[in-house]
Amino acid sequence: MGNGRTSGKILIVDDESRSRMALEALLRREGFEVHDASDGSSALSACATFQPDLILLDVLMPGMDGFEVCKRIKGRPETRLTPVVLITGLSETEDRIKGINAGADDFLSKPIDLNELLARTRSLIKLKQYTDELEHAEAVLFSLALSIEARDPYTRGHCERLAEMSAQLGERLQLADEHVTALRRAGVVHDVGKVVVPDAILLKPARLSEDEMDIVKKHPIVGERICAPLKIFRPVLPIIRHHHERFDGSGYPDHLQGTEIPLTARILQLADVYDALTTDRPYRKADQPEVALQIMDEEAKRGWWDRELFDAFREMIHKGYPSDANRGTALTTRSSPA
Predict the structure, then answer these.
(1) CB neighbours (10 Å) of residue 286?
(2) What residue ranges do the domains of the chain occupy?
(3) Interhelix angle for 289-301 vs 263-277, to 10°?
C-alpha cells in the first residue's frame, strides 16, 4: 500500500494530540487519507463532512467518551455501516462488552501494535468498500424500480406503500427480521421486471387482451433475473417471482398452490391487491377500505388468497393501517394486480 495512492479515508479521534499525530503520520505513509478530531462532538461533525471509511476512536476522552460517540455513530442511518475501532487501555471484559453494545466493530489495545493496526485497518476498509458496492447496487435497483413506477402517474407511491404495508404485516406475524427486511425490499422492486413491458400495455386504460397479458405475465421472471446477481436479495427473489400466484393455483408464472407459495410472497400479494383496489385508476375510482376488503374476502372464498393470512391482513387494516393520509394513487392493475 505504501505507493502514495489513497486507499481509504480514516478518521482518528483522540484527545491526545501526540497520539493523533503519530497515527496520522503512519497512515498517511500507507496511502490513506486521514482526518483527525480531538473530541466527540468534533468527531460527529467530521463524520458528516469527511465521510470516513473507518474510524479509530479512543475510549477515554473528557466529556463524551468513545462508547457514547460510537453509539451515536451507529445510531445514524448515514454512518451506521462505517466501521469503528475502539482504542483502549482498558482490558476488562465488561468494557469490551460495553463497546460491543455500543456497536464497535473491533478493538485495539494500548500500546498499539502498528502491524496489527495496519492489518485491521486494511481488512475493515475492504469490508466497508464492499458494503458500499452492495449499497450502490441496491440503490441502482431501487432507482430502476421507481423509474418504472414513475412511467405511470397512477403508480405514484405504490412501491413505498407496499414496502411499509407488507413489512408491518410481517412484523405482526412475528417473522424473523431478515424476512421483514426482504418484504421491505420486495415492496420496492417487486415490479422491476415491468421494464420489459411496453408503455402501450402498461398505460392502457382498459382490460388487456390475452396477448398483452401474456407479455405482462413475464415480468415476475424478468424481475427475478434482474435482482438475482445481488446475494443480499436472495430472500427477495421468491417474493418477486411468486407475488402473482394464487392459492388455488390459478396465478402465474408457476401456478403454485397453497403453501407452495412462499409466505412472504403471499403477504406482499395481499398488500398489492389491497393497494390496487383502494387507489384511483384511469378507468375506475378507488374503493373504500371496507369495500376493498369485502372484494378480497370474496376472492379468498374463491380460493385465490390464503384465508388465514387474509384474516390477519384484514385485522391489521381494521386497526388503522394504512391511514387515508398514506393512501394515494397506485398501480394501474386490472381486476387484481398484473
Answers:
(1) 18
(2) 9-132, 151-326
(3) 130
CATH of range 9-132; options 3.30.420.40, 3.40.50.2300, 3.90.1800.10, 3.30.70.270: 3.40.50.2300
Residues 6+ apart with CB under 8 A from 314: 293, 296, 297
3-state secondary structure of 70: helix
Residues 17-66 have pLDDT tens digits of: 998 999 999 999 999 999 999 999 999 999 999 999 999 999 989 889 99
Distance between first and last Cα of the chain = 53
* Cis peptide upstream of residue 253 (ω within 30 degrees of 0): yes
Considering only the top CATH level, what class is 151-326?
Answer: mainly alpha
Helices (H), the chain: 17-29, 40-50, 66-75, 93-102, 114-150, 158-172, 177-189, 199-202, 210-216, 219-227, 237-242, 263-277, 289-301, 307-318
Instruction: Give the full edge-to-edge strand order of the sheet including 106-109.
Output: 33-37, 9-13, 54-58, 84-88, 106-109
Look at residue 3 and tell me whether its pLDDT is greater than 50: no
**Residue from 30, 72, 35 nearest 53 by CA:** 35
- Which is it for the CA torsion 166, 171, 173, 174, positive or negative? positive
Q: What are the φ/ψ torsions at residue 194 (nearest 5 degrees)?
A: -70, 0
Q: What is the DSSP string of 272-285?
A: HHHHHHTS-BTTBP
pTM, two decimal places? 0.61
